[in-house]
Design brief:
This protein is an alpha+beta fold and 309 residues long. It is built from six helices and 13 strands. A hairpin with a 2-residue loop joins strand 11 and strand 12. The radius of gyration is 23 Å and the shape is globular.
């Protein structure tokens, strides 16, 4: 009877055991906080409205891009600290003409540690004045599960060759920090239009990642009119879906769902205006904490046959 009970225990611990999944709410937003003299787009007025809007949305973790005005980034971090006690800001690059930082920062409700950062080696045009980068962080969630997330802002305009080189730097960083059983999610303004399948599919294949489609009525996160609010230097286009969340499950059952474009609107002067030339994109990520799936042979205690007659 004792042998039977021991076998039952061994079988139970060798099978997968799954605790409750945690659903992580995520928001990514290019804030268009480009300082003077590069453009004049009511940056200060827009930034002063960010905190209240983000408090209302109340997502678990927020990824920012193009937040180049340090004072406004620090203001947002200070005002949102009660809601988001954990933050991450990449270091500035050392290049001679790197007048600006990366423009990235992350705010989280949950414990988060910075694992690594890469500053891109290749750039074009005015992007070369910024320390365009990618930063990878690891979050620990309330259910004990973990997830690695990467915030980035890739090269703009029709420069896929440069974006490809930047993606390869990110891929190398992800591989270096990867842990089997912890999913990795690439987040940010990738400047790759999800509505143009050629580059989109090629980039996903390059990164060995997947992306779920947008839901809801909006199919673009950039390219809308800001007339009557502020001038958009790039003009208006047909609409682009360039703000993304891509997934590498890395041996887990992580799932990204309910991905939507979210307009963030505030009162500027006499008008209700978008607070950036990008809308935000939100999604929910289901993260499960799974214990070791199976004991190795060396971990299984030997069961000795009884010698009693």
């Amino acid at each position: 009877m004792k042998i039977f009970n021991l076998l039952v225990i061994l079988l139970s611990v060798s099978l997968p055991f799954e605790v409750n999944a945690h659903e992580l709410s995520v928001l990514t937003w290019n804030t268009f906080l480009v300082p003077h003299p590069f453009n004049n787009t009511k940056q200060e007025e827009r930034a002063d409205l960010f905190s209240k809007k983000l408090q209302t949305l109340n997502r678990d973790i927020v990824f920012f891009q193009e937040a180049f005005i340090d004072s406004k980034r620090e203001l947002v971090m200070k005002e949102l600290a009660p809601l988001y006690p954990y933050s991450a800001v990449p270091k500035k690059g050392d290049g001679l003409f790197k007048f600006l930082g990366s423009g990235l920062f992350i705010l989280s409700k949950y414990p988060m540690k910075i694992l690594d950062q890469v500053v891109f080696e290749d750039c074009s045009g005015t992007d070369c004045f910024a320390s365009k980068s990618a930063i990878i962080v690891e979050l620990t969630l309330p259910n004990g599960g973990q997830i690695q997330m990467i915030d980035t802002h890739l090269q703009g305009w029709d420069n896929f060759d440069i974006r490809k080189k930047q993606l390869l730097q990110i891929k190398a960083m992800m591989k270096l920090n990867a842990k089997f059983g912890i999913a990795q999610v690439l987040v940010g303004d990738l400047n790759i239009d999800g509505n143009i399948k050629s580059e989109y599919s090629s980039a996903l294949g390059l990164m060995n990642m997947t992306s779920t489609p947008l839901e809801g009525r909006l199919g673009a996160s950039n390219g809308f009119s800001t007339e009557g609010c502020f001038n958009t230097p790039g003009g208006i286009n047909n609409g682009e879906w360039i703000d993304h969340m891509w997934l590498n499950t890395n041996g887990t059952e992580a799932v990204i769902h309910s991905k939507k474009v979210i307009p963030i609107i505030g009162h500027l002067g006499a008008s209700d205006c978008p607070l950036s030339d990008h809308y935000a994109v939100e999604a929910f990520i289901e993260v499960k904490k799974i214990f070791n799936k199976q004991l190795s042979k060396s971990q299984i205690p030997k069961v000795h046959k009884s010698t009693r007659s």
